[in-house]
Specification:
Number of strands: 0
Helix content: 55-70%
Mean pLDDT: 84
Radius of gyration: 16 Å
Largest sheet: none
Low-confidence stretches: none
Order of helices and strands: HHHHH
Distance between the termini: 43 Å
Structural class: mainly alpha
Shape: elongated
Number of helices: 5
Length: 82
């Protein structure tokens, strides 16, 4: 099962992840770093190691819902705490 999961990720997910990272890398210099787009590109580039980890570890997940849920509170409260 784990080998099959990695094979599917290699075929389907890896090209998409590589394309997203290349898009961010090639366009980050074309937008202001403080803009929402610039922040999004920077955030995506910072996620590169974790996205690559997803491709090499069959039990890795792309979301952090389990972690966020363990913090308690509903979704809206988690994102707007000060």
């Amino acid at each position: 099962m784990e080998a099959g999961r990695l094979e599917i990720r290699r075929i389907k997910s890896e090209p998409l992840i590589d394309e997203l990272i290349n898009l961010a890398n090639s366009n980050i210099g074309k937008v202001l770093p403080e803009s929402k787009t610039g922040q999004a590109f920077g955030y995506l580039i910072g996620l590169k190691p974790y996205l690559k980890n997803y491709l090499t570890h069959p039990m890795a997940r792309l979301d952090n819902n389990k972690h966020q849920t363990s913090k308690g509170g509903d979704k809206e409260q988690r994102y707007y705490r000060f």
